[in-house]
Amino acid sequence: MQEDLLSNKVDEFEEAMKDMYLIFKVDDQLYGIEIKYVIEIIGLLPITYVPNQEEYVKGIINLRGKIIPVIDARMRLSKPQKEYNERTCVIVTSIDDFLAGIIVDHVSEVAVINKDQISSLPQTYEKIDERFFRGVASLNERLVLILDCETFVKPDRINL
Amino acid sequence: MNEAQKDPMFEIFVSEAKEIVSSLERIFIELKEGNRNFDVAVAEALRFFHTLKGSSAMMGFDDISKVCHRVEDIFVCMRDEGKLPTNLDNFILDMLKLIDFLTIQINRIENSQQPQDAENIEEVLEKVEMSLAENDKVQAESEKRYHIRLLFEEGWEMENLRAFLIVQNLKQYVKVLEYLPSDIESNMASSEKIKKEGFFISIETLLKKEDVVKLFESFAWVTDIKVEEVSEKASLTKEISSWQNAIHSTNKLINVNIEKVDKLIDLIGEVVITFSMIVQHQEIKTDENSSFKNLTLQMSKLIRELQEVAMSMRMLPLSSTFQRLKRTIIEMSAKLQKPVDVHITGEETELDKVLIEHLTDPLIHIVRNAVDHGIEDKEERLKKGKGTTGNVYISAKNSGSEVVISIEDDGRGLNKEKILQRALERGLITSPDDIGEDEIFELIFQPGFSTKEEATEYSGRGVGLDIVKNSVQKIGGRIFVESEKDRGTRFTIRIPLTLAIIDGMLIDVDGNVFVVPLSSIVETFKLEKQQIVLENEIPFVYRRGICFSVIDLNKMFYGKDMLAKERPFYLGILVTNGEKNGVLLVDNMISQQQIVIKTMPAILKQVRGISGCTLLGSGNIAFILDIDALLER
Questions:
Q1: Which domain holds residue B482?
Q2: What are the domain boundaries of chain A?
Q3: Within a domain: residue B239?
Q4: Are the beta carbons of A25 and A109 closer than 8 angstroms?
Q5: Maximum CA pair distance of chain B?
Q6: Could you give the CA distance from residue B501 to residue A66 in angstroms, rounded to a whole number?
Q7: Contact B600 A57 (CB under 8 A)
Q8: Which of B76, B92, B302, B584 has the greatest number of C-beta atoms within 10 Å?
Q9: Strand, coil or helix: what is B529?
Q10: Alpha-carbon gap: A95 to the closest alpha carbon of chain B (Å)
């Protein structure tokens, strides 16, 4: 009985999180990832460069004793590099128990975006890596590109 | 099934069942070797089967409980009606088959797979049932020997004198042969021993077991009486050691999930790091307050001790692994009709659980080779003037921060000519002169190398010694082979005690900190630029008559040339993996310290030459060098 209650709670919680997105900025564009992947948001920590990685993998950081890789959202999205500043932060995500940090310019808010608000991207733009995007939604009259957290964070070659 | 898996009851069942199965295996192997009295073995096995029957029935694993029930019947028959198996060896082999079946079932249950078909085991059971002969045990009315263990209630003190009292009293009724500890009258310290391990007595009497027990019941401080009838020869000391094992394994152990232990070790690792961050903190470093310094000193001692205790929790004795080896040998020796004696020493040597898991298969492989290829047939042995029974010696011992395991047989030894011929065929060497005398045997670790032409049940399944070598290397170990014609072959494996913590040397390469495992460092030295020869861009140094290749870490990892820096001298570290050597060029050697190994995040690409990373006192990350990979070129 108690377990039922508990699992209901978990379901409710998941239900509530389902349409929530963390919105962040790279340059002036808004991007959103599902909040269920997000563990926490931290300031930039010292990054240790790891040899022989994809360019967008900046290295590893020490998050309270856990060693996690960080990737640069800007470079993953093939945008020109920019100096990190005090607003730069790291979104710590967890996908199937694998932790990874995403370095973004600025985190703006958590927003609710319903499924029917999301429309697919136009197919015509060759420069957009469509694997990363679930679609686009409008939020307070600004466009948010919804990212697929898994393909965005995980390297292309590994099936974890 | 999935629901049941989350249940802590389920976990308890699985771990208990595994323990029972391995205890059963031990009983039958000891019985086979004649180290255990048949009746005692039957009684113990019966108890284990009974427990397993009960718990598996409760958990709803009917096939296990049914099999256990059948076996229980057989054992009850043997115990109560005096029936005996006609052929003890076959009986034991059948029982081992049965234990295998149970092991598989339990593993399948643990991994929530479908249980195995029980049909084969039905056959085994019927065979065993049929083999029980009617020959009643001869109940001789002669004097019998009993070994007795008494446990004393705590808090009575003067245990040695109480024990003495018992012995004196006993002498009126029975013939007391021996008691342990034997110095109860004179040595007060024996009291502690009795408290811990109990008091052991060996007697000879016409009395029945029940009556013997009654003799002790009048002593109020005796809490537990264990009486076992033994054969003439059985020595008390041997019996005691088996009892002691039983005491230790039943009363003083609890089952802990390995993940919890790992978590604990992780946490302690973090405490270590955080603590050194505190000590190195600017505000504290500059503070001259000596009482604080004392505190930190004390704290660091405590933490180190805590770390050691936590690490030791992962350590397991090698005994169960050795038991499996022994069992493999017993089975093979029965099937191949080659009598083999197994001699085991140092089975109490402890090793990290994870390492043990990785070692078991390689060891079994070596043991199989020893019995299958190494030990000759009876006739051949006789011709060579050896005893008809072959010998396999399995041993383990601690040596510094390593454990050395060796497996030796007194068989025909490795055939040098055949190995050379094979190596020529395979193109591993171009001429027999290519290779030094002492390197010939190393060839058998090459991939695709097998001197045995035909495959047998035990070997030639496409798994060679190269796989063995790989798995040993994977856990940071090294393997060596020695052999002498007609004298035998010995494999020696050296492995680090644990994977989680190593002693390391911190080095600086252009501002990046790396850790070199201390075990791979031979020496460190200064060298000047002109001592480094650059031929075709390939640097090497010449030292004491030997040429070593230079490994430029800066170039490898960061694309910068170390040698481009003009400096008065360079620092070189000569490293080895036991076979190959190389010199690392570094800017600075920082310090030597214990390193908590962390694995690299799985979603990164593997970096050749880096085996893991660690956190430094500063909170920075340092990479741990994989010396094997660096030397492999």
A1: 316-496
A2: 1-153
A3: no
A4: no
A5: 95
A6: 16
A7: no
A8: B584
A9: helix
A10: 11
| B373 and B508 both lie in a single domain | no
Which residues, in sequence order, are CB contacts of B608 under 8 Å at separation 6+? A52, B626, B629
- C-alpha distances in angstroms, B519 versus B54, B494, B512, B592? 50, 12, 21, 12
Do B53 and B66 form a contact (C-beta atoms < 8 A)? no
Is B605 in contact with A52 (Cβ distance < 8 A)?
A: yes
Strands (DSSP E) contained in B474-511 are 478-484, 488-496, 501-509
Based on the number of CB atoms within 10 Å of its own CB, is A143 exposed (0-12), middle (13-18) or buried (19 or more)? exposed
Domain of B181, CATH number, reads 3.30.70.1110
Nearest CB to A69 within list B604, B608, B615: B604
Of the residues B496, B529, B547, which one is the last residue of a structural domain?
Answer: B496
- Residue B226 β-bridge partners: B149
Least CB-CB distance to B620: which of A48, A52, A160?
A: A48
Question: Does A1-153 carry CATH code 2.40.50.180?
Answer: yes
**Do B114 and B75 fall within a single domain?**
yes
Gap from B590 CA to chain A (nearest CA, Å): 18
Indicate the angle between helix axes B88-110 and B62-80, nearest 10 degrees.
160
CB-CB neighbors (< 8 A) of B556 in chain A: 51
Same domain (yes/no): B113, B193: no
Tell whether A27 lies on the interface with B, counting CB pairs under 8 A: no
Q: Smallest Cα–Cα separation from B390: which of B300, B477, B487?
A: B487
| φ, ψ dihedrals at B270, nearest 5° | -70, -35
Q: Are β-strands A98-104 and A89-95 bridged in parallel, bridged antiparallel, or unpaired?
A: antiparallel
ipTM reported for the complex, 2 dp: 0.82
Interface of A with B in 98-117 (CB under 8 A): 98-100
Report yes or no: B310 and B261 within 8 Å, Cβ to Cβ.
yes
Q: Is residue B246 part of a domain?
A: no
Q: Give yes or no: residues B480 and B348 share one domain.
A: yes
Contact yes or no for B448/B454 (Cβ under 8 A):
no
| C-beta of residue A75 within 8 angstroms of C-beta of residue A129 | no
CATH of residue B484's domain is 3.30.565.10
For the stretch A72-112, pLDDT in tens is 999 988 888 888 888 899 999 998 878 999 999 888 888 88
The pTM score is 0.53
Within 10 Å of residue B529's Cβ, how many Cβ atoms?
13
Assign residue B603 the CATH number of its domain.
Answer: 2.30.30.40
Number of domains in chain B: 5
pLDDT digits (tens, 9 = 90+) for B340-387: 999 999 988 888 888 888 898 899 999 988 998 889 988 889 998 888
The 3-state DSSP class for residue B348 equals coil
Q: What is the CATH number of the domain that holds B89?
A: 1.20.120.160
Query: pLDDT-based confidence at B240, cuts 50/70/90?
Result: low
